Amino acid sequence: MTGNDEPFDLYYDNEDETERPRITTFIQSLANYANTIPSPNTDQEGECATAPVKSAEMGTLIGVYLPCIQNIFGVILFIRLTWVVGTAGVLCGFFIVLTCCCVTMLTAISMSAIATNGVVPAGGSYFMISRAIGPEFGGAVGMLFYTGTTLAGAMYIVGAVEIILVYMAPKLTLFGDINDDFVKFNNFRIYGTCLLAIMGLIVYAGVKFVNKFATIALACVIFSIIAVYVGIFKNVHGSDALQICVLGRRLLRIDSTSDCTKNISGPLYQEFCPNNTCSSYWTENNLTLERDNTYSQIMVDITTSFTILIGIFFPSVTGIMAGSNRSGDLKDAQKSIPVGTICAILTTSTVYLSAVILFASTVDNLLLRDKFGSSIGGRLVVANIAWPNQWVILIGSFLSTLGAGLQSLTGAPRLLQAIAKDQIIPFIAPFSVSSGRGEPVRALLVTLVICECGILLGNVDILAPLLSMFFLMCYGFVNLACAVQTLLRTPNWRPRFKYYHWVLSFLGLSLCIAVMFMTSWYLALLAMGMAGVIYKYIEYRGAEKEWGDGIRGLALSAARFSLLRLEEGPPHTKNWRPQILLLLKFTPDLELEHRKYVSFVSQLKAGKGLVICASVLAGDYNAIGEQAIAAKQVLQGVMVKEKVKGFATILVAKHIAEGRSNLVQTAGLGGLKPNTIILSWPYGWRDDADEEQAFEHTVRTLTAAKMALLIPRGIDFFPDNTQKISGYIDIWWIVHDGGLLMLIPFLLKQHRAWKNCKLRIFTVAQFSDNSIQMKKDLKTFLYHLRIDAEVDIVEMSDKDISAYAYERTLVMEQRTQMIRQLRLNKKETFGMFL
């Protein structure tokens, strides 16, 4: 309807009817749209076009909950949790477990918010994290996550070997008594290497074999935990399998429960009383055979500390991202990932926290602190608790540990391949290649090498804190990404998961950092240093990926805040520096005239401050818009070659002078605006009247704008960035230049091209002036400015110098009087030149 309520006819144009999609097709494409960057596997259009699409049918239970359960419950639960409880005590042990569980729960909340902010791509947690925090941080976190996953495989392998050699078949030891630490760790290294080779072959055979074994491992984990709880409640009043022989309050390391007496014929008498000479501790203390410890006093082992224990236990709560790694196979990833992950953490946290209380209530503290079960015949403490016998736990924990190790060796190479395919870290690009069967063979080989390095450490207690650092760094960045996105309130941040808050994310980040430094401050610094090196490497090589991440949004918000701060008032004279607008000219063939102007700006700025390289093309933008775009690309290419960090802009105007005037008035933003213009000299002004008029008009415009003007003449004789020249930089100084003539040579000498040059300052005097005093005052003035320069006074007669030139020439007595009139102190006076 029109304004006068009269109907009008709609014009139907069927020109593009065959090109426009049907409305139903368009809506269907919107429904299937994923607002995240696809995984590298989908970058190749040809592969995507031919590859059959597999329907995602996995639900929350099978796709997220059970995989997280399998990955969280690991070797630490079976071989170290009882020792952690006995060493730390029930209160500190409970606090250690609670702290670690809080880290994973807060991280899961942040991860759920990120995962539900759009369609989750098939690619796992790395893609989710990297697309949220940018290529630099994403690459660093990805490499840390890869290293942690690889070292986790090493820890699982060493733990599996420990279960075999210490508890299942100690006679398989190669070098002697397995209770000797040197012999034990060397056996772990040899058997671990052999087991790694076998597992590597299984992974190489294909992921389908690993997935088949994963079902068995998951069943072993669940059944083993059930057996432990049944055994605890069945033997709540004590068990013969947990009998220990105690002399005073010292746990005897030998298996003496069969005859725990002081009889002369007994084994203990022979041990403590050789040659019928008994030690004083034997005679002063009684032997007791203890079976339970429901109300025992919890002691703390002086040989370890709280920080060591938290570092050893933390790997037992990792694995929370197992569900997000299967995002491409989930029917509804935005629903399954939050629900499945959080429920898995609640389940495992309940098991761990209840286990701490139950172990402390039913097992003597001295036995809990017996790490390798020497006092009960070298048996695993948690296995002796289980029902119906210890072999249920030994076999179950061994198979579940192998399953977790296979999952790590399967996931780590694919993670490395995914990072390599993103092309953000050039030196790992060769690992993006897959075999004919689609297996990342190259990535698998380097993963096995790194895993072998971890196995050579030969000790779970050393590996656990090390991989804790990498997982904590990864979890910390997840919380940081969620907090940044929440605080920035970007329009595309609309998670379906509503139970998050930036306070929780920052609390999770703080806990990650705190646990890192509590575990080991030097390992924490090592992990942060590794992340920093990778970040700077990606930044140095130029991260060309644009993923719409939160870190770039943070940079935009910081830039806006800084510009608003600069807008509050003019800069102080001490903070003044030339913010340059370079006005260049193009040939009709869109070639840049006198490229050394760009080199000169690079030498003058040395990467500091604002640089805008601009040019004006005469004509109508509708007619030459494409030429303007091409000219901008040429200008940007020259700036890159000359290493000028700045901005390029091309303006199309009917007249060159008008365009330059518009640039002078509008270039910059807020307080970050040019104050110095570098204008090319009109070499053809004698033959081109328009060029002469444009030059004069530009100079008048700059005078009206009160901007500094630099007109380098003979620019082709200036050095480029690769040259090193020597000689003199001559300055003819005048009074009212504001110090700019002194500042220009100082800035030039900071560049290597001008570094070997010396500075000479000339000033003009008449024969009637006191030249000696002028030279002395000028040297004093330069001394206070911290500028090394030679001073020359040039005396001229009245006929050789115009009245205007003399009036504008530096006379130190007049300048001193002027400074006094302005009532500037010495510090402010010298500051306005620098």
UniProtKB/TrEMBL annotation:
Localisation: Membrane
Signal peptide: none
Domain of life: Eukaryota
GO cellular component: plasma membrane; synapse
SLC12A transporter C-terminal domain: residues covered: 598-712, 724-808
Gene3D superfamilies documented for this protein: Amino acid/polyamine transporter I (1.20.1740.10)
Principal location class: membrane
Chain segments annotated as transmembrane: 62-83, 90-115, 144-167, 188-207, 213-233, 298-317, 337-360, 466-488, 500-524
GO process annotations (BP): cell volume homeostasis; chemical synaptic transmission; chloride ion homeostasis; potassium ion homeostasis; potassium ion import across plasma membrane
Protein name per Swiss-Prot or TrEMBL: Amino acid permease/ SLC12A domain-containing protein
